[in-house]
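--- STAGE predict ---
source: upstream dedup step, 1 unique chain passed
mode: sequence only
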Amino acid sequence: MSVSVALRGKPGVSEKLRARILARAEELGYRPDPVASELMSMVRAQQRAKGVETIAFINTFAEPALFARIPGLIDFLHGAQARAVDYGYHVEQFDAGQRGLSGRRLAEILKARGVRGLLVGPRWRTEPDIDFPWKDFSVMLVGESKYGPNLHRVCNHQMHSCTTLLTALVARGYRRIGLALVKEDEVNHGYGYLLGLEQFRLSAPNEVQVETWLYQDYDEGAFSQWVSDRGLDAVVSLPVQPGELVPQLRTATGEAVGYANLNVVVGSKYSGINQFAPEIGAVAVDMLRSLLLSGERGMAPRPHIVLVEGMWVDGETTRGI
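--- STAGE serialize ---
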């Protein structure tokens, strides 16, 4: 196994041992056989199919029950579960934030259950990275664009989402737009939405103005004053708190202020971006399956990051075209 991992350039062996193996392979004139490699992948897949193997979806929230209550997040899990069935796997949620449960202890439980593959869900605000022995598992990060350990990940293309949303608002006649975001979220996610705003500004019509408000704690009064002082005719946010208030606000001409959300869930009344969270979960399973078949475990020196684009959807909170 060590030779196989080293020859395929996968994590799991020390650099010293990898160098020894590669040097010896070079002396022997070794070259990989692509047909044999494909056959081995098929054998591994057939072995897994003989029994339903569990993939652990790690809920990292300090308050585990909160995960299911935040719109869109539980869809990561549901999308992963649906795709896993196609491959003969079963995805089960494990709560890392349970009282008295350390990351090390959770790893012991998973090993005892025969779990080899992990899907790690997103964090909530300032929660720290979980202390976990990543080297013992094949791991995919779901819904996070930035995380402490070097893990492969799948998430929404936040820059594209923000640019797409702002372009849609302009097409609907909005000219003074406000972007209200939680500062902490932007820091944790590498300023993805703000980067999208900067990209939008490069090609936006001169008469279009976008104001930003990065806040720590939502204050309805301060928010209303900001909309009024800036003369905004539309507001964008990720948290849904402004969603109920904004349509009650009026522009100088008496028209309702438009509202769009950067993560609209199916069935919502809000206009905005559908991030396709179930698809993100499904793609994470696709990638995790390839890690399991190849035997790759632990952190990656150069993580692969897959960005899934969102799409604008019309709701009740903006004009039509």
